[in-house]
Amino acid sequence: MPENRMPRPRRHGTVYSRRKGCTCEPCMDAARDLQLRRRYGISIERYRQMMTNQDGRCNACGLEWEGWEQRFSVDHDHATGNVRALLCQPCNLALGHVQDDPERLQLLIDYLRRHSFGY
C-alpha cells in the first residue's frame, strides 16, 4: 500500500463489520437487530423494551436475565408469527417440545404429579 494511503477505518455498528469478526457492542447490536427483524419482525429496541416491561425476567418462570451470554428467546406463535413474550431457553424449549399445545402440557403436569414424591 502506498505510504500516502491509509487503510479505511472499519465502520462499526454494521452487519458487515460483524461478519468480519468484530465483537464490539455496536456491531453485535447491528447483527442482532437484523436477526430479530428477519425472524420476528421486531427491532433490537423493541426487544429491549420487552425486557424492560418484563423486569428482565422470563415471562413464564420468572428467571432473572444475567447478561448477553444468557440471551432470552423471542417466543412467538408458529401459526400466526405473532410475538408473545421473551422466555428463558428452558421455557422456550419446553413449549417447542409440546408444540405449544396446552393440553399436552397439562398431561405432562399430571404425569409429574402422579410420579413425583413430595408434591
How would the blueprint of this fold be written?
Blueprint: H1 15-19, H2 25-40, H3 44-53, E1 73-76, E2 83-87, H4 89-97, H5 102-115
Antiparallel strand pairs: 1-2
Organism: Agrococcus jejuensis
Protein name: Recombination endonuclease VII
Keywords: Endonuclease, Hydrolase, Nuclease
Shape: elongated
Overall number of strands: 2
Superfamily (CATH H level) name of the largest domain:
His-Me finger endonucleases
Uncertain segments:
none
Spatial sequence of strands, sheet with the most strands: 1-2
Please summarize what this structure is.
With 119 residues, this protein is mostly helical. 45% of the residues lie in helices and 8% in strands.
Tell me what you see in this structure.
This is Recombination endonuclease VII. Keywords: Endonuclease, Hydrolase, Nuclease. Pfam families: Endonuclease_7. It is a single chain. The protein has 119 residues and is mostly helical. The chain folds into two domains: 9-41, no CATH class; 51-115, His-Me finger endonucleases (His-Me finger endonuclease fold), CATH 3.40.1800.10. Helices cover 45% and strands 8% of the residues. The chain contains five helices and two strands. The protein has helices spanning 15-19, 25-40, 44-53, 89-97, 102-115; strands at 73-76, 83-87. A two-stranded antiparallel sheet has the order 1-2. The protein starts with 14 loop residues before the first helix and ends with a helix. The model has no long low-confidence stretch (mean pLDDT 84).
